């Protein structure tokens, strides 16, 4: 069902400083910042050729990333994202197999303009999983 790894997401307290670290210190290509109000985050993508690292910071006090950073003030890995061919079919199969889809269970538009869903970390060895339709 899952396809390739799309990205690994790292929550950061300062998006500008973290993007500069990846770009200037590690020599990576970093996208321009993008605000995603529906998800409560601002993001940049670090292009690694075969995959990406997403750096995400809270967009407002009610962001789920703000809550994450309360427990992890220096930031840390937040989720991993896998591609799927058909997000609705993938969600239906996962639910039938007992996995929990977060939110209302309906896909939202993600940072790449494609439908995404998140799966409960307790169902996947403590890791928050994002599925993105390829």
Largest sheet: 9 strands, mixed
Q: What is the number of strand segments?
A: 9
Mean pLDDT: 96
The CATH topology label is 2,3-Dihydroxybiphenyl 1,2-Dioxygenase, domain 1
| Structural classification | alpha+beta
How would you describe this protein?
By secondary structure, this protein is an alpha+beta fold. The protein has one domain (2-133): 2,3-Dihydroxybiphenyl 1,2-Dioxygenase, domain 1. The chain is 22% helix and 38% strand. The protein has helices at residues 15-25, 64-71, 87-96, and strands at residues 2-11, 29-30, 34-36, 41-47, 52-58, 76-84, 108-109, 115-119, 128-133. Strands 1, 2, 3, 4, 5, 6, 7, 8 and 9 form a 9-stranded mixed beta sheet that branches. Strand 3 (34-36) and strand 4 form a beta hairpin.
Short description:
The chain is of the alpha+beta class. 22% of the residues lie in helices and 38% in strands.
Task: Give the helix/strand layout.
Layout: E1 2-11, H1 15-25, E2 29-30, E3 34-36, E4 41-47, E5 52-58, H2 64-71, E6 76-84, H3 87-96, E7 108-109, E8 115-119, E9 128-133
List keywords for this structure.
134 residues; alpha+beta; 2,3-Dihydroxybiphenyl 1,2-Dioxygenase, domain 1; 9-stranded mixed sheet; 3 helices
């Amino acid at each position: 069902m899952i396809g390739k790894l799309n990205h690994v997401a790292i929550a950061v307290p300062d998006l500008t400083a973290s993007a500069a670290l990846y770009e200037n210190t590690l020599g990576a290509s970093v996208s321009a910042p993008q605000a995603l109000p529906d998800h409560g985050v601002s993001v940049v993508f670090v292009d690694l050729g075969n995959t990406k690292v997403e750096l995400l910071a809270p967009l407002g006090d009610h962001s789920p990333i703000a809550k994450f950073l309360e427990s992890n003030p220096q930031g840390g890995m937040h989720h991993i994202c896998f591609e799927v061919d058909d997000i609705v079919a993938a969600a239906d199969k996962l639910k039938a197999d007992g996995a929990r889809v977060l939110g209302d269970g309906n896909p939202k538009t993600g940072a790449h303009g494609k439908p995404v869903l998140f799966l409960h970390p307790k169902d996947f060895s403590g890791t928050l999983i994002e599925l993105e339709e390829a």
